[in-house]
From TrEMBL:
Chain residues that bind heme c 1: C142, C145, H146, M273
Binding locations of heme c 2: M185, C228, C231, H232
UniProt organism field: Inhella crocodyli
Family stated for the protein in its record: Belongs to the CcoP / FixP family.
Name assigned to this protein: Cbb3-type cytochrome c oxidase subunit
Record localization: Cell inner membrane
GO cellular component, as recorded: plasma membrane
Amino acid sequence: MSDFFSSGWSWYVAIVTVLGLAFCLWLLIASSKTTAMSDDGTTGHVWDEDLREMNNPLPRWWLGLFIITVVFAAIYLYFYPGLGSSAGALKWSQEGQLQAEQDAANAKVAPLYAKFTAMGPEQLAQQPEAMAIGQRLFINNCAQCHGSDAKGSKGFPNLTDSDWLWGGQFDTIKQTIAQGREGNMPPMAAAVGGSEDQRNLAHYVLSLSGSAHDSLKAQLGQPKFAACAACHGSKGEGNTALGAPRLNDKIWLHGWGEAAILAMIQNGKHNVMPAQNQLLTPEQIHVLAGYVWSLSAPKSAAVAAK
């Protein structure tokens, strides 16, 4: 699309806008000088024997109002965006206005966050004010995907358990919030083999977590797991460096059972968590990470500072 909307289109929009205003101004001035087409002040058109069409010019106050509108539009376009890609004399933009308002709001609450920036996760967990702020940040920015209770849903991780795709350490959570995450599992059907091999592999994956499975199929599918072990580990223990989930527990992010595993093998999966560092300040991310950490931290760690 950027190739389509070139600088030529910007000039086109600007020229059309200017010509449109000039035409409106000319039309208004020209209409104010229109004279009647007959001596009796009518156009000369008559209907039903005595119904005559008058040809009176616009009232001057009305005409003046239209002219003021055109002049106002010209002044506005000089100061503000509107003529193609021109930013206007004031260089105003929606993005700049939003950024200014965000900066003002952040400056106002900066003292509130300042006392938390030097605290570690255990200390943050002991601060009711920090946890209340973290909860509010979570509801406003994270609950849409992870749920207001942070327990997630299909395709969206549960943040209250100990199962973490990228790791549940405090610094890792901060990095995840700030920079986002992108996980990609490519389709593996070609590497595994035919449909029967894929079913055997699915049953072997089920066996890793102790789920109900066909033991014969699982035995036949074990060699096929070599195609998966590079990411998920030889025993299905996962790999937080790659965001590869564990397969040897009973936590299934995208669904459980043979059909769900086959869908993953055949179609793969691409998941994205957007970065939040453009919406939240580092201080807000620090407090939010402390709140998220507290949701799954061992109770002994959460109360250690008491």
